[in-house]
Amino acid sequence: MQNLSRGKISLLFAISIAVVLLFAALIYSQYGRAKPSIKIGVLHSLSGTMAVSEAPLVDALRLAVEEVNQSGGLNGQQIEMIVADCRSDAAYCAQQAEKLITQDGVQTLFGCWTSACRKAVKTVVEKHHHLLFYPLQYEGLEQSPDILYTGATPNQQIIPMALWALQHQGKRFYLIGSDYIFPRTANLMIKDVLLAQGGQLLGERYVALGTSDMAAVIKEIAAQHPDFVVNTLNGDSNQHFFRALKAAGIDAEKIPVFSTSIAEVELAAIGPDLVAGHYAAWNYFQNVDSDENKAFVARFQQRFGRDRVLDDPMEASYIGVKLWADAVRGQGSTDMALIKSTLAQQTLLAPQGIVAVDYDTRHLWKKAYIGKARTDGQFEIVWHSAQPIHPAPFPFYRSRAEWLEVQQALPGAGP
Amino acid sequence: MNRGFKMKNISLVYRFVLWFIVVALLPLASFGYLSLQQNETALRSEMLNRMSHLADKKTLQIQTYLAERMQNVQLLARSSLVEAAMADLLRAYTHHRVDSAEYRSAEKPFRKNFAAYIGEDKDTLFYDVFLITPQGEIVYTHEHEPDFATNLLSGPYRDSQLAQAFRESCMALGSSISSFEHYAPSGVPAAFISAPIIREGVLLGVVAFQLDTQRIYRVASDNNGLGATGETVLAKLTGAGEAVFVAPLRHDPQAAMQRKIDLKKMAVPMRYALAGQRGKGVEIDYAGKQVVAAWRYLPELRWGMVVKMDTDEAFAPLRQQRKKLLEALLALAILGGFVAFYFGRQMVMRLRNFARNADEIAQGDLSKRVNESGRDEIGVLARSFNRMTGNLQALYRSLEGRVEERTRELRESEASFRQLFERHSAVMLLIDHQSHIIVDANPAAAQFYGYPLEILRGMNVSRINAQPESEIHQQRQQAITGEQNRFGFYHRLANGVVRAVEVHISTVNYKGKSLFFSIIHDITERKLAEEQLRVAAATFETHEAILITDANANIIRVNRAFQDITGYTPEEVLGKNPRILSSGREGKAFYTAMWQQLLTTDTWIGEIWDRRKGGQVYPKWMTISAVKNEKGETTEYVAIFSDISERKQAETEIRNLAFYDALTSLPNRRLLLDRLHLALSVSARSHHYGAILFLDMDKFKVLNDTLGHDYGDLMLIDVAQRIQSCLREMDTVARLGGDEFVVLIEEVDANAEEASQKVALIAEKIRVSLATPYLLKGHEYHSSPSIGVCLYKGNQESIDTLLKHADLAMYQVKDSGRNAVRFFDPAMQHAVETHAALESDLRRALPNHELHLYYQMQVDSENRPLGAEALLRWIHPQRGMVSPAQFIPIAEEGSLILDIGLWVLETACRQLALWDENEQMRNLELAVNVSAQQFRKHDFVETVATVARVHQIDPARLKLELTESVVLSDVTDVVTKMHALKALGIKLALDDFGTGYSSLSYLKKLPLDQIKIDQSFVRDIATDPSDAVMVQTIIDLAHNFRLNVIAEGVETEAQLDFLKRNGCRAYQGYLFGKPMPLDLFEQHVMGLINRVGG
Fold first, then answer.
1. How many CA atoms lie within 13 A of B1000 on its CB side?
2. How many contacts does A have with B, using Cβ atoms within 8 A?
3. Are residues A277 and A304 in the same domain?
4. Do B545 and B518 reside in the same domain of the chain?
5. Picking from A27-31, B982-986, B1021-1025, which range would have the lowest pLDDT averaged per residue?
6. Is the separation of the CB atoms in A258 and A241 below 8 Å?
7. Pair A233, A376 in one domain
8. Domain for residue B779, yes or no?
9. Does A83 touch chain B (CB under 8 A)?
10. Is the Cβ pair B176, A195 closer than 8 Å?
């Protein structure tokens, strides 16, 4: 070749250039367009009374979003997370939802903690036929085509816990809860099941949210000496309750307390020493022994710090993003109707195990776990369901109409 | 030469074909490939979507089927039928055996109803139905298989999936689907759906339905829309990392519920499905085939599902397309190749003929011609070629004739050149490049080298080269390349003499050989001359100026140094007489003498002052020599000179520095000592007094620090001049450094008195002169001198002593307020020395325990001891007792007083603490004097507090005595501190009251407990009425201010009497006891108390 005349070399050169340019043009026409990011909205309280509980959820969401973006995004597009502060105010949160949907053009919403917040946002989401992922365990008795519930229904958390307590602790039980819809509804279901199993209700007490005076309740518990207590208290009251319990000399060996709203984050806040030996039920504990969970905890702590803990609502938030991202990837589109129909059949290998969206109820099939609090701020898992449990927002033994009627009749059910 | 691939070596025909393929076929193939690629992507994604869609459909189908069955069960559980059946059958079951007629009759009405639920014939929905009591008794089954009438909590089937579904429904009061397992009573795999029967919140039992394989397979194996190779695969985990297919496989119909497979060996899609994932992709299936697959997880049954189709089938259209494209490309290539070959050949045939004919012409047959037919480019080329061949033929013929002519001409020319070579007087050689043999030489060469011609021709040139070969080699190379053609060599002649030669070399071709044609010039003489010139020129340019004139003294040449020294350029002086340089300092006689010497000895050396061009006169050292020619006539004068002005200046400077102060030009210490020495000797002879004044400017350092050294220096110069103006010529003023001056006044007077008077006058004059303001660069500055004077006579005292005395006197002035004159006085010296000795002894007094506290009694009017004043005593090992009046001022000059004061305080407190243990001493107060310096210390109060606390004394028993000088220094601070002391409980007394200038208003402000009447008043109260009034007044004053009052220095009964009469109730003095050492004091106190008590 070295003897090729200059003219021929330049001709060959020109041809190669032409071919390369042609290919470049072809590739550019296919892949060259820059794609805008996909926006998602986050509705959590970063200020006000709920901020302590809700702020960690934003971290869990952020971890999931960053993981999706790092693995190439969704069909070549990056996810952009817009976080709105709900200020612990349900009405304000609904306004933010409206703004995220109409002004920011988000593809989906993740958020809410309290039932009140969910119900307020539900109205907005349903008005726009939009989509909300709700990450908390709740009282059930709700279903919406526009909401995907990644938290537990009572039959996935409370009922197994109450039954396990009955089998392992005895038949005499005592109910204590905060005075609002979730504890009232939950206790209704607990009574249904435990009484049908021959349980004996010794007392049922409700205190206002945030109450610190537990003297009367503790006195009653000490007098009745139940085999176990089911605790549906929420918020700061838990701390006062456990402190008073300890002060009265009632320890976990004598009367174990089964709580529905104490996860790792709350355990750290109350102080593990006060709660150690008592029980809690969730669909996820940081202590779950699986490869997926260990990797998940490691990723989270690497991103947010070694001292951070994970709990059920955080994992549920994380699951939400993953489910949605899988649906968008699978469809190669963000079309709302397509995504919703795909979501209804979505499954995922989550940190807690396999979760699957239930086609009928748009809740998740989840495993139930019961954990015993340890002094190191973690739960020792004492029982878990063999398989993911079917979500039943409306337990079978009453019709939906009956359920709603019963719920309406509950004191504190609200309008 | 590399004969690799070359386009030029390929026939034109093939090149046509090659280019056709490159230009036409390659892009076509590329486009074909790209479109294929795109189709494949599209098809792939379409197939994947289709699989995904089918999988979703299938999932939904299964879910719907299961949801419907679940509803069937729930409906039944809520129906009145089941309620009734439960009641009736339970009754029959508990009271009768299940194979009894009673049970059968009870069962009969319900069988029909249950049969309806199960469905009929081929449309059956279920395999079996069960009624179970809350206690686990199966009271009814439709099939009556072995499980009938067993207990699900304790019976043989308590671990079956039916038992599991029953328990779950019981517990959670919800419907449940069991896993799909082999069910022993039926002998086939089965799953169960159960629901609780609840009435009024009471659990009556559980109803369950059995789903069998047939019904599940029917749903699962529906391969609608999956093509020939499509398949739905269902599998479930069995635990322990194993999985099993739950429905028959297309490639393995027996696999259902039979073969357990390690999960790790499972096909990838199913592994994903069982892990709960949902997805699609091209993967390898269980049969090892590549498939397009979608995988799903069914939460109800915990099954993994894979819907797949072989890629062979899925991507079949693509393969067909690819095949067609390849075929088309091949056909196109063959066709195009043929066309290119045909047309190329047509063209190339004519070119080939052309080439053959042209080759024959090139062999030399110029009569040949090529085929010229055709009008195209080849035809035109052929015609031109033929014309060119014709022209070549004609040209060739004419050339032959001209060659002959030129040959003859050349021969003639060569002969003439030969002649030139032979007869030329220049030495010429022809030398062979390689062998260095002289090929030819001319007669001139033979003559020069001294060899006969025959020998010279054929001689190696190295025989005449006087330099080593290595030196010549490089020059020779340069000659060959033509880089240089003139060289300098050394050649050896036959007689051995070496000559420097310049050789012009050119290379010529002679008879096929390359030769050097060298022309040689002898340059030996020239070279020598050049050398001398160079040396002369270098010598000429020295740093000494050289001036050359002709015999008539006109300047003909000067060197560079001349210009540097005189400032004249050569142009300005050439042709002129050196007279223009003269300064006019030397007279005519000088020059006459100079010329006289020059003319007689031909040389002159000496120092002469000249003037530079700039007008400056300078000394120079000059040598003039006359240069003579062979005849002895003077042709030139050469003058060599150097500038010696700097040297002269330096000499002066050195002399000055040694004896004079650079700043003021006054004599320095060295010269002063010299002169003093002299002055003392003179005085010894003349017996006259002289004086030494030691003088120092006050606050000179302040000037230097504030305005800078420039100003200080200016002032010192001024001071020097002022002192000098006050003195006689013969007196010496010297500066010792800094602002210290010494004045030596000699020979004042023989009478000491007179001498002092005179010296005092002079000194005073100097003082006044130096005390007038100074004007420094426009600043007015005030200063004054301190002058110490010391007289001398003869050699009585050494110079050092005298200077020290003057210095001492000056320091006395400084100490007493500056700006004055003072004479040295021997007493003064003694005082100073004593002072210094005492001070150094005092420093050692404390560590050597030479200080002691003496105690002087204070008593009340009943002569009872109230306490004591602690008084400091110094018992010096040599001097004995030293008075406090002597050493306290010395201690107060430095900080020694602080250490001593602290020691007194410590000792006093320690004593108080000791007294505390003694019944009789317990109530004594102890008064301690506090010096001003001590009291002024910022931490004085803390120190007292600490000491009091350390010794645990009752603060009320410690009394601090302050003098008025303490109190008057800084009233605010004093009052604050006194209040602080009072707050500690310590008592405060004002000492020596009445001697100072205490104002009454201060007295009012001070938180005092006691005032002490000074002994100077007490001493004379009995005799001096004014003192008596004073003491009276003080006592009244104290009473008015509600202060205690104590009188000190009470020595007589009369004094005591007066004091008692005037209301003073406390006393101290010799009358009651002198200050005494501790042991004596203690005895004394005991005695007193005992006497009083007794």
1. 7
2. 102
3. no
4. no
5. A27-31
6. no
7. yes
8. yes
9. no
10. no
B792: how many CB neighbours lie within 10 A of its CB? 25
Residues of A in contact with B56 (CB under 8 A): 342, 345
Asked whether residue B698 falls in the same domain as residue B815, the answer is yes
pLDDT score for B1093: 44
Is residue B1064, in this structure, part of any structural domain at all? yes
Quote the minimal CA–CA distance from B191 to chain A in Å: 15
Do both B905 and B926 map to the same domain?
yes
Query: At residue B63, does pLDDT exceed 60?
Result: yes
State whether A246 and A100 are in the same domain: no
Provide the H-helix boundaries in B424-491: 443-449, 453-456, 469-481
Would you state the pLDDT for residue B7? 59
Is B711 in the same domain as B764?
Answer: yes
Q: By the CB < 8 Å criterion, does A163 face chain B?
A: yes
Domain residue limits at A46: 38-152+289-366
DSSP symbol at B122: G
- Chain A CB within 8 Å of residue B399 CB: no
Number of structural domains in chain A:
2
- Sign (positive or negative) of CA dihedral A376, A377, A383, A388: negative
Q: Which residues of chain B does A192 touch, with a Cβ-Cβ cutoff of 8 Å?
A: 173, 201
Mutation to test the A interface, candidates B5, B171, B198, most A Cβ within 10 Å: B171
- For residues B350-377, give the mean pLDDT: 80
Q: Does B189 touch chain A (CB under 8 A)?
A: no
The helix (run of H) or strand (run of E) holding residue B926 is strand B925-930
Domain that holds residue B168: 79-215
Flag whether pLDDT at A4 surpasses 60.
no
Q: Is the dihedral of CA B336, B337, B341, B344 positive or negative?
A: positive
Q: Note whether B820 and B875 are same-domain residues.
A: no
Residue B49 lies inside a defined structural domain of this protein: no
Q: Which of B1038, B1040, B993 is nearest to B1017 (CA)?
A: B993
Kindly state whether residues B766 and B844 are assigned to the same domain: no
Domain assignment present for residue A279? The answer is yes
Structure tokens at B847: 């560590």
| Residue A328 near residue A75 (C-beta atoms within 8 A) | yes
- Select from A390, A398, A403 the residue whose CB has the most chain B CBs within 10 Å, as the one to mutate to test that interface: A390
Contact residues for A16 (Cβ-Cβ < 8 A; gap 6+): none
Cα distance between residue B1011 and residue B989, in whole Å: 5
Q: Which residue from B698, B699, B696, B694 is spatially nearest to B809, judged by alpha carbons?
A: B694
Q: Closest CB to A349: pick one of B4, B59, B276.
A: B276
Report the CATH number at residue B90: 3.30.450.20
- pLDDT above 80 for A331: yes
Residues B941 and B964 in one domain: yes
Residue A119: pLDDT over 70: yes
Same domain, B1056 and B992: yes
pTM of the model: 0.52
* Cβ of residue B1 closer than 8 Å to a chain A Cβ: no
User: Out of A4, A365, A395, whose CB is closest to B174?
Assistant: A395
Which residues from B are below 8 Å from A2, CB to CB? 2, 4
**Is A279 found in the same domain as A193?**
yes
Q: Chain B residue with minimal CA distance to A160? A: B172
A contact test, residue of B297, B301, B302 with most A CBs within 10 A? B297
- Domain-embedded: residue A50: yes
pLDDT digits (tens, 9 = 90+) for B73-122: 988 898 888 888 998 888 888 888 888 888 888 888 888 888 888 877 66
Say if residue A270 is in the same domain as residue A319: no
Chain B residue closest in CA terms to A27 = B34
Same domain, yes or no: A278 and A170: yes
CB contact under 8 A, A330 and B279: yes
Residue of chain A with shortest Cα separation from B4: A1
Non-local (6+) Cβ contacts of B894 within 8 A are: B839
What's the pLDDT at B1021?
Answer: 85
